[in-house]
Amino acid sequence: MREMPPSHPFDDDKLKEECGVYGVIGVSDAANFVALGLHALQHRGQEAGGIVSHDAERGFNSARRFGYVRDNFTKASLMETLPGPLAIGHVRYSTAGSKGNTQIRDVQPFFGEFSMGGAAIAHNGNITNALALRRELIEHGSIFQSSSDSECIIHLMARSLQRNIPERMKDALRRVEGAFSIVAMTRTKLIGVRDRLGVRPLVLGRLGDGGWVLSSETCALDIVGAEFVREVAPGEMLVISGGKVESSFPFERTGSRFCIFEHVYFSRPDSILNGQSVYETRRAIGVELAREAPVDADLVCPVPDSGTPAAIGFSQESGIPYAMGIIRNQYMGRTFIEPTEQIRNMGVRLKLNVNRALIKGKRVILVDDSVVRGTTSRKIKEMILDAGAAEVHFRIAPPPTAWPCFYGVDTPKREKLLASNMTEEEMRAHLEVDSLRFISLDGLYRAVGEAKGRDPKKPQYCDACFSGEYPVKPADMLDQGFKLDTAAE
């Protein structure tokens, strides 16, 4: 029986990370490096993970497991089955396919055997025309083994008439719409590619004298001692073999629309995105929040953990003291995998506890990374008041999340998003707090380095979850009746 990472009420009201991809070539026991890299990317997906390696004598080998990297890919008995100087890996949180009911066949990387040899592929993002592609492929004889949209790429590659796997991959990806960062491998090549808008991240690193690394984030280069070389450009394909890196641009170049929520929430604060420190960007968000939405209060407290840098920035700009008014229990572990109903009713208190000595009698500013359904925010507010706070003021790092993401982030349906149904004042009343303010979209853009704010005619980032302006129309969802905001469109 498979054992899943624990689920908590605190997490149910948060946007779920997408996935993480990682690949290594040119070192002995590449799979061990991949396991370390996936451990550093665990924040991007905690549901399952997988590694595929290739060895000249033993060919392709794979291992896919449910649960955390630390619980699976640190065992010598498993890692010995993944020999070779080339390997790729994936950590998953399901965004397409059978959400919450993942089967082992859905866990990446996926592998396919072609006439010119085998290939494995790991995908971060979401294919927005996957249902249409799947119907077409099935009608032409393809047999799918998983519910994942990523498997479409393998079948499209199988149908291509090109003579080598990188060219077949180009053929396949030209049919794909949506967002993708892909790490793939053949017997001798490591391949990395980003969609033409560069919505999802992918970076290149150098490992020792002859090794190379592809990773979703730079923090996973640091863990193996790799040197950050550069980001893979939007629409770029890298093919790494024999110590050389070959670059090509197989898609029409249309400019970048990188996911702005990577800066706000998804990426680790010790990563670098678009040449910027994620930590410094989040601190700058707090600075902008303090300028846009000042409030007279006694303490600035983060909602752990991703609200911390913004709270520091808010405190520095406002001059209001920063304090750890809420403490996160870092050792939830597996104790509450199947909690009793009584335990479930404790809700957020399983993960967060209020520092009563600090909070009592104080006017408290809580800085959080998002308000999705609002259920967690209300519980945190109640905890703060129960501890004797005089006032509770919420300051939220991103703008209101009013639209679902179709590019690799698991967001609720639009009707479940608080900001899609209420104004800011209505949300304040619903949460029953003394004040509630979100950063403006222009303020967020200033925090990520766009001094003039957001260009409404040509947005520099993908901000569809805030604006309703989707850079790639979600074809499958439109077919199912989803309505775009015609004003934004």
Structure description:
The protein has 489 residues and is of the alpha+beta class. It folds into 2 domains: 9-256, 4-Layer Sandwich (Glutamine Phosphoribosylpyrophosphate, subunit 1, domain 1), CATH 3.60.20.10; 279-448, Rossmann fold (3-Layer(aba) Sandwich), CATH 3.40.50. The protein is 28% helix and 24% strand. The strands form 6 sheets. The protein has a 7-stranded antiparallel sheet. Helix 6 crosses helix 7 (165-173) and helix 10 packs across helix 11. The model is unreliable at 1-11, 95-99 and 333-339 (pLDDT under 50).
Query: How big is the Rg?
Result: 23 Å
User: In what order do the strands lie side by side in the largest sheet?
Assistant: 3-2-4-1-10-9-11
Helix-and-strand structural type:
alpha+beta
- Stretches where pLDDT is under 50 for at least 5 consecutive residues are 1-11, 95-99, 333-339
Task: Classify the helix fraction into a percent range.
Answer: 25-40%
Domain count: 2
Strand segment count: 23
The helix count comes to 19
CATH topology of the largest domain: Glutamine Phosphoribosylpyrophosphate, subunit 1, domain 1
Largest sheet: 7 strands, antiparallel
- In the CATH scheme, the class of the largest domain would be Alpha Beta
CATH superfamily of the largest domain: Aminohydrolase, N-terminal nucleophile (Ntn) domain
Beta content: 15-25%
What gap, in angstroms, lies between the N and C termini? 47 Å
Determine the mean pLDDT.
89
